[in-house]
């Protein structure tokens, strides 16, 4: 994300999308890009992660990117870090709806959240 002539990396609050080389990674990146590239976005900071990145809710043209990725089945709610209520409860509802419709990552019962997938690869 470009801000004031520099590029800032924003981590989306409360969710975790697949890694680039993980199943669903390219699709999650494509949707995220479609939602934000070339658009004015609103960033609502929630925290800072251990790497110094801003962890935020991101909105573009009235659409919350965090929620859209979960709604499309292209990100998991990250229970360890998603604590803000009622927001996280709403994200969990979107996740359950995507799962029941077998959207995105939920088409394959073997898909693992990135935090599990990374541990399995070590």
Structural overview:
Helices cover 34% and strands 23% of the residues. It contains four helices and eight strands, in the order E-E-E-E-H-E-E-E-H-E-H-H. A hairpin with a 2-residue loop joins strand 6 and strand 7. The N and C termini lie far apart (30 Å). The model has no long low-confidence stretch (mean pLDDT 92).
End-to-end distance: 30 Å
Classify the secondary structure makeup into a structural class. alpha+beta
Order of helices and strands: EEEEHEEEHEHH
Q: Catalogue the unreliable spans.
A: none
Q: Determine the fraction of residues in helical runs and give it as a percent range.
A: 25-40%
Question: Strand-residue fraction?
Answer: 15-25%
Task: Describe the structure in brief.
34% of the residues lie in helices and 23% in strands. It contains four helices and eight strands; from the N terminus they run E-E-E-E-H-E-E-E-H-E-H-H. The strands form three sheets. Strands 3, 5, 6 and 7 form a four-stranded mixed β-sheet that branches. The protein has a two-stranded antiparallel ribbon with strand order 1-2. Strands 4-8 form a two-stranded antiparallel ribbon.
Descriptive labels:
4-stranded mixed sheet, two-stranded antiparallel ribbon, 4 helices, 23% strand
How is this fold's topology laid out?
Layout lengths: L1 E2 L2 E2 L2 E3 L2 E2 L8 H12 L4 E8 L5 E7 L2 E2 H7 L4 E2 L9 H14 L13 H8 L1
Parallel strand pairs: 3-6
Antiparallel strand pairs: 1-2, 4-8, 5-6, 6-7
